[in-house]
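User: I'm writing a tutorial on reading structure tokens. Could you give me a worked example: one chain, its sequence, then its tokens, then a sentence or two explaining what the tokens reveal?
Assistant: Sure. Here is the example chain.
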Amino acid sequence: MTMRDNEETLPNPVRAAFDRPSTEDGVIVNIGPSHPATHGTLQIIAELSGEKVVRADVHCGYLHRGFEKECEAHTWHTLIPFVDRLNYCSALINNFAYCDAVETLMGVEITPRTRYLRTLLSEYSRIADHMTCIAASVMELGAMTAFLYLMTIRDWIYEHLADLTGARVTYSYGRIGGLAHDLPEGWLERLGEILDQYEEYVGRIHGLMDRNRIFIDRTRDVGVISTDQAVHWGFTGPILRSTGAARDLRRDTPYLAYSELDFDVPVGINGDNYDRYYVRMREMDESVHMIRQLMQMLPEGPINVDDRRCTFPEKQRVYTEIESLINHFKLVIDGPQVPAGEVYRAHEAANGELGFYLVSDGTGTPHRVHVRAPSFVHMGGLHKLLEGYQLADVVSTFGTINMIGGECDR
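And here are its predicted structure tokens:
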């Protein structure tokens, strides 16, 4: 038997499903990965009957950075910049979720100021992420004015976070046991100004989009998924909540300072594209509400724990004390010595449950790192939102999923 003959006999679900159309008038087309809307990281093989998508097969394996395996060759500290690249629209949430998992393994309890700051910055990042998603998805339907309004606010947020972290998009601001540094002078005042500007601009978006006949016709009853289907495919975050399920880790399994905050969990009705848009719009309002509370609650005090196992000594002490110098070099070269064990910690990221499963063998380098990235999970069930709808709906439905290629990295 030749190799070609052997290939024909091997079971291959992709070949079996898409080697030929299922009907005489069917046509198989490739959408992506070079299509602008698929970001170069996603391919959708679709069978069409006229303009209707009969079947869809989603391939997200076009970004091979090897994030999880690469983590095994770096210390617990030096892999923090890697997690920024998972969801680069809300990198700070990735920072804090990873640091939380390591801190749980080490038995480290962060300071009150850091706990409130991490909560505030997580909600600030959620706003930026949702704005990016909504702006891109409405722009792909032709709503350029709404796109420009949203991107204006998002850029102010990006500039503001750059003032805090020293970087744009890839922040690396989290630290095991705390944060890189405290807030710069005047940062909270500028935050208040941006929140006021947010309310003005988002009010315009509601006026432009919420009852727009074209927008409603393109999104209502399109890309529908039920709660049972969403749970079956592992959907979390705004996609699950758009079906009416009020599942939110910030409320159901509180972490950081969420148990002290007053906020609602917005839900949809039909689980369609319109509901996913509106749930994100409402979640941004709730995030603003939480940030305003946190600005009032933010205590003074240190931002890093006083623990030599993970916190770098102050530079002045490094220059003048041999013990601090040794401590500094040990943390840089060997990394924090994390006790042997395993842990899973999940945070409510902008796209859903973001979880880090870490295994330590007691050294300064992880034995195993696995991330439960929401975008990767959502790609497994994306075909259920595409099948039965129009070819023109593929891009708009995909936009409401907010797939981030970095999260699909394996």
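What the tokens reveal: The two ends are 34 Å apart (CA to CA). The chain has one domain: 67-372.
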